Amino acid sequence: MKLKKQGYNLCFSAIVLVLAAMPLLLRAGVITSTSFILFLGKCIAFSIVAIGLDLIWGYTGILSLGHGLYFALGGYAMAMYLKLQATGGKITSFMQTGGMTELPAIWKPFLSAPVSLFLIIAVPGALAGVIGYFIFKNRVKGVYFSIISQALTWAAYSLFTGLQSYTGGNVGITEITSVLGSIKGAANMGKMSVLFYISLTILVIIYSLSYALINTKFGKLLIAIRDGENRTYFSGYCVSRYKNFIYILSAVFAAVAGALFVNFNGSITPAQMTISYSITMVIWVAVGGRGTLIGAVIGAFLINLCDYHFSSGEMVEIWQYILGAIFVVTILFFKGGLVGIVCDQIPSLWKKNPESGVVVNE
Asked: How far apart are the first and last CA of the chain?
């Protein structure tokens, strides 16, 4: 097991090194499109969400189908700050369309960078804390928790689309430059590279913190809750507190990812808050391999790279069906995902006689 975990960390290190080389390859002319680097920056953000989901689903057994809510909250908080920087603290065009003449009170805290950074973490964390407290206190779990998380996400989506004067409605907040200014085009390659490396550093920090957490007594208790919640409860542990803490932590990770995503994407819309978007996040973890951390990272990159290449051209109409089929097959036959196939199933096949299929006695 220890050797396997070292393999996971080596794999993550290899991914980080490959990603770190991408801006250098762009400067050397090996990669000709700056849009691909921007896309990889978004994938880094998606990987952070996936790590948070793996902590609550893979390690704790809590299937959340509403993490798009926290991702979007972090994204909107960052977008509000960046939009006010662009307008010089004045009202936006959609506020003017809605009949406003001055900046709404809810937007004013985002005039300050430190306050904005605090709210990116505090608002999703507080919301997750309140939701988790009442749900886990009443021992709601399984499919019931998943349904509640979907309902909350749908309610938030309806709220954000309805408050057009405050959130931009269905269009969202668009035409946003990053915290470093414009990062699009060859002229801004330096700023894009700096932002890319900052995001990559945040990914490394979050992965390292998560890895350290799951290798403590706290992490072992999370696994105990997943494998036998009642036994853990009757052993004297307050299960609801552990579940609530990991739920809050995963929500904060999702919010941080949303804030990074906005810098690369240049916009945030309620589409990032939909149920389908949240389910897609779960697919990343399932395909990569839940309960491994590295599987979440691999799944996020792999699925989005496939989406990047197949969501246009001849595959555009059937790609979503293919993605759904991959998810179903993974859940039914390969619960360990790609990591499980490589680390468990393939090695077990090597121990069998290739002709008879009978395990060779050692």
From this structure: 21
Other C-beta atoms lying within 10 Å of the C-beta of residue 227: 10
For residue 187, the Cα-to-chain-centroid distance in whole angstroms is 30
Amino acid at 297: V
Longest dimension (CA), the chain: 81
CA 220 to chain centre: 23
Residue 202 bridge partners (DSSP):
none
Read off the pLDDT of residues 197-227 as tens digits, 9 standing for 90 and up: 999 999 999 999 999 999 999 999 999 999 9
Radius of gyration of the chain (CA): 22
Across 75-92, average pLDDT: 93
Burial 272-307 (b: 16+ CB within 10 A, else e): bbbbebbbbbbbbbbbbbbbbbbbbbbbbbbbbebb
Q: Are 203 and 47 in contact (CB under 8 A)?
A: yes
Q: What token pair was written down for 59?
A: 């390690």
Q: Quickly count: other Cβ atoms within 10 Å of residue 25's Cβ.
A: 14
Dihedral sign for Cα 50, 51, 52, 57, please.
Answer: positive
Alpha helices in 54-163 (DSSP H): 68-87, 93-97, 113-137, 143-162
Residues linked to residue 359 through DSSP beta bridges, in sequence order:
352
Residue 310 tokens, joined: 């197949």
Domains of the chain from N-terminus onward: 2-350 (1.10.3470)
Give the pair of three-digit tokens for residue 211: 């890895």
Indicate the SS3 state at residue 352. strand
